[in-house]
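Example 3.
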Amino acid sequence: MASQKTIYMDHSATTATDPAVVEAMLPWYSINYGNPSSLYRLARESRTAIEEAREKVAKAIGAKQDEIFFTSGGTESDNWALKGAALALRKKGNHIITSAIEHHAITHTCDYLKKQGFEITYLPVDEFGQVRVDDLKSAITDKTILVSVMFANNEIGTIQPIPEIGAACRERGILFHTDAVQVIGNLPINVESMNIDLLSLSAHKFYGPKGIGALYIRKGVRIDNYLHGGGQEHRKRAGTENVPGIVGLGVAIEKAVSNLEVKTLQIRTLRDALLDRILHEIPNTRLNGHRTMRLPGNINVSFDFIEGESLLLLLDHSGIAASTGSACSSGSLEPSHVLLAIGLPAEVAHGSLRLTLGLENTNEDISYAFDEIKKAVERLRAMSPLYADYLKKRPCNV
Amino acid sequence: MASQKTIYMDHSATTATDPAVVEAMLPWYSINYGNPSSLYRLARESRTAIEEAREKVAKAIGAKQDEIFFTSGGTESDNWALKGAALALRKKGNHIITSAIEHHAITHTCDYLKKQGFEITYLPVDEFGQVRVDDLKSAITDKTILVSVMFANNEIGTIQPIPEIGAACRERGILFHTDAVQVIGNLPINVESMNIDLLSLSAHKFYGPKGIGALYIRKGVRIDNYLHGGGQEHRKRAGTENVPGIVGLGVAIEKAVSNLEVKTLQIRTLRDALLDRILHEIPNTRLNGHRTMRLPGNINVSFDFIEGESLLLLLDHSGIAASTGSACSSGSLEPSHVLLAIGLPAEVAHGSLRLTLGLENTNEDISYAFDEIKKAVERLRAMSPLYADYLKKRPCNV
Amino acid sequence: MYSEKVMDHFMNPRNQGEITDADGVGEVGNPTCGDIMRIFLTVKDNIITDVKFQTFGCGAAVASSSMATELIKGKTLEEAWDVSNKAVAEALEGLPPIKMHCSVLAEEGIHKAINDYRVKNGLEPWEEKEGHTHSHDELTCEE
Ligand SMILES: Cc1ncc(COP(=O)(O)O)c(C=O)c1O
Ligand SMILES: Cc1ncc(COP(=O)(O)O)c(C=O)c1O
Ligand code: FES
Ligand code: FES
């Protein structure tokens, strides 16, 4: 039925693991399989491999090796950061500030904390998806113990003023966590100069394996443990270490942050080419998110009169892998909270398409994708009653 | 320096991932890398692979497919089961019963729950490490909401009377969780006939990969979520699925439970051969744990007058990978709580050696290991002041 | 975990054994904590002419005993008294932090043996530091 070639434009959902990363992981499955907590040679090798990976992660974000703790992914890092900080600081206060456009790993953790008696302030964002630092400053109270604002958004790609947010928190002695899951390999990060206390990352977003991530905890910052058990990760995160995953994360992050400018320029150039064609050549289309403060590979556009899930199905049929903020694809029938937060009416949110480009995309992909998107939009509009109404109401039927 | 060949006798710590398992995992890294939550073909493939693995896990323990939830390992499963059940049932009561010899993933989670206002009863065990069902029955109060007793112990290998414990809980309408991390591939499990409500398992203990596990939650049992975020795992466990890991777990568990009797007979025979020689040919040696209700590959013996860490170092030098319950190897300077719970004096616990045999061990391994253990014990005794005293105090200096 | 020097002294302990007619014997440690160290001294003209040890303990304890006996052999009692646990650990090219107390054990064993000699010979014992204790931290787990 469908074409067999896949043009993958959903790199914010996940990425293919780089074959070089898989290669590096392989010996740690069946040859050097020792449990790092044990005493013998096989175990010492695993321990060394873990520490080497930790060093790479630290280096990639300007941290020190003993500030990095491995987790099972971005979700665990976010849960640990928020719950761990909240419980550790409960005596100081019960107020947490976050933004209206966080990933569910943050918002649902906040919902949980709310049930436990914490108060959550959701900072609004402007029409481009940015938090205003002044809003943050005025939301801070004597009871504020934690601020969590994502570095860049997974749907609309908007980048937040992280150094300024960090500075505002540091000034008031409030812990600052940022979910940087979408950022590694896309923007340079330096936890020191950016005043970041806690930072989440996840390997599968930058050509590493799924099921492995890390939490950066600035030295001196004390948060409660989250996974209780054995004494792994300097007694901060229990569980037998996923050695192949950790090794893969190390290799992936080292590659991700090297040559960053060249790679992001390449992706940004392709992105802009595709984005410009969509905005100029398909009428009744708008860009969601910020024009410049935006992840290099991210496109998020809304096509009036159509619904995103149908659009994805047509694109899938053409071999294009993409994403939408439409409720109809979410299993919950709620359109994306991010698109609503930047002020999109629900019906426009329904017609949104997210394309997130990556290293393997080419000029040919762009042309092909554009043609298919245009055809699909036209096809869906042709069957849309909203579009029919619109055509009738226009002064002349062009 | 040390001999390069490794005779691995620490299968309870972890196992080498079966090359066939790694083979099955490989396509899911770089070829079929789609995020299962997405809509396109690549994603559907991942989703199908996950459901196939879920089916295999379910089948291996006599459960239904929709009763299996993937986690990052045994530790997460244990944390989720205990915290999730405790929080969900808080209104019904705050009393939890467990045993004195659980893994730290259970005991430290209980410590945490204690701080949150729960009351924990630690059932004692007899000298062989078994819980008495009568003790359990009399520990149950109106406030008891959860019982967690491990299926088999990771240090001394003792198997608990799980069906009886399950029946006692079911009778009183109390949730029963069992940590079966050490059991898959060693004993048959049927959650239905054994009255188990919640069960933890971890792939790397049965020739699967590290960093992946599962929690069985009996249909109708409601426990709180633990990792909050996206809607994965039927909205019960957030986080992008570790697809290669899940596929690996599926293949590993299918292999682990097939031909169980033949495999465990092979391992038990080797184990008994080694154990008998140790007990008969090395004086002042005792067996820890139960003689028959014991994991097939487990040996846990104490050698009087010597300390376990030094023993492990000598064995490592001979290429033998083993484990000890001595405090000196634990990083915390507390001897194993399991050995203390079965009544061993601390100094005897210090001299303990755990050997856990697996599928790849041979008769030659056994002979070699025995010789090296005997030499190492003699060498350490020769430098031990305790042994010197013992020799002097003996009626005649043989 | 252990330096090559520690492993060398563990695998090939120097001065291991017993001096049956020792001039001074010191024993420290506690089997409950998993460590007992016994130091035997032969002293001639205030000089340690021979030293031997027996140890029940971990790799670090054995290596510390071995190294400590090396360090004090041929020394005056005063010089031997001043051999600190730090000196033992340094000579071993470092010990893991959790294992530092094993070197303390060696220092204390030497002090006890020297004082045993002094008391036996009608001399004032020198003032010893407080007895060695294990730091009973939080529990950890093996795997
Ligand atoms: C911004 C953001 N945070 C957190 C996550 C969760 O990471 P993971 O799926 O690795 O748990 C994701 C992606 O899924 C994300 O895009
Ligand atoms: C009985 C038992 N429970 C739980 C665990 C924890 O499993 P994992 O290390 O996979 O988190 C282990 C082993 O480490 C175990 O032996
Ligand atoms: S139109 Fe079918 S789910 Fe929205
Ligand atoms: S003798 Fe116990 S840690 Fe050294």
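The interface with chain A takes residues 1, 138-143 of chain C (CB under 8 Å). Strands of chain C lie at 24-30, 35-44, 47-56.
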